[in-house]
Amino acid sequence: YVINNGSKEEILRRAKLQLARVYFETRQFEKTISLYDELLYKPGKDILVTDVTNYIDLLKRTGRVMKAQEISAVYANNYKNNARFTNIRESLVDYYSYFNRDSLENIKVDSLRLNLPGYQYGLALYRNNIVFLCNDIRKDELQSFYTNSKLYQISEDGVEPFDNSLRGVLQVGPASFFDNGQKVIFTSNRFTDVKNDKNSYINYNNGTQLLSAVYEPDHEVWSKPSPVKLGRNMESYSFLHPSVAPNGKRLYFASDMPGGQGGTDIYYSDWDKQEKRWKAPVNMGPEVNTNGNELYPFVVGDKLFFSSNGLRGFGGLDIFVINIKKPEEGAVHLPYPVNTQFDDLNPVLDENKLLLYFTSDRSGAHDNDHIYVLNLKKNPLKQLDLPYPGKPVKDDERVPYTMNRTDSRLQ
Questions:
Q1: Which residues pair with 374 in a beta bridge?
Q2: Model-level pTM?
């Protein structure tokens, strides 16, 4: 209304900045860029550092690297002490080196073209299968992104709904299964309008929380979820993306609780066997966390995979891996085409099948996230330092799913 009906320049500018932020959050990226082109050509008191970093990321996403370099130079003095801005600016210096020709030639990433609507995300391993979330986004329902999430699993028999006895509040997942698939910790929404005895485990503050459940084989159902308590007075903050070590002794997760590096950080909590509770969360520190967003931790052995838009990378959210026993060595950025200038996130490594799964919105189809897989038998990544079978892989040895190779659009 303010923009269409004319207002004072200051009010109009404030409205456009707010609108640009809303467009970014709702993934209307071209509209975001159009407004930022108009507003961010020079520093201003009303401009946030996240406006600038998001703008540069979107410029990279659309191939406008020279424009991104120009904008980073304009704001260099303003944000020289900001870790995320510094990493983004450094990534632009020799940006096309990320498109390593060896990677382009030898590493093949395939897309699982599933006949499902909406976003596919929230990957997890469940026994020998992959479990994921899918959203059926309906334009006539404002909250449909949160309310229409359903869990599915991929097995050799195909794609099918996951056990519907596992229930949360509006959304179940992302999840982490452990103890041979008998236990689960998962993300669930908190909403104030859900108030009844049946859902009495709900915390009434908005945001996300972690819930736990146990499989009851005698009844073939999951138990009623109970909150995962990670310290006092934490109801005002979000807890999401759990990853539990297979032995159940350590829980990794992302949170925006205070005391971190900024944005969402990755934490871990150890299980206190005597007290039968999770200990106070520990921040993973600056080797992992930045003042950007770190999300989707996944632990396997000594390796912690995660996604970040604050570390030096391609752009948007990229996938990194760090040795948790040698954190001082720092996080390793996975090469193209695992990482791209689009959002690449939610890495899950199936060590038994040597498959690296992740989600990405690189397809360009309404910027939806879809599931991708890298067969590490055929495409070993030295960055992962994994033991591989000595025998060569036959040409007809394939992942047991129907897949189409991703497109090779020019960058």
A1: 109, 356
A2: 0.85
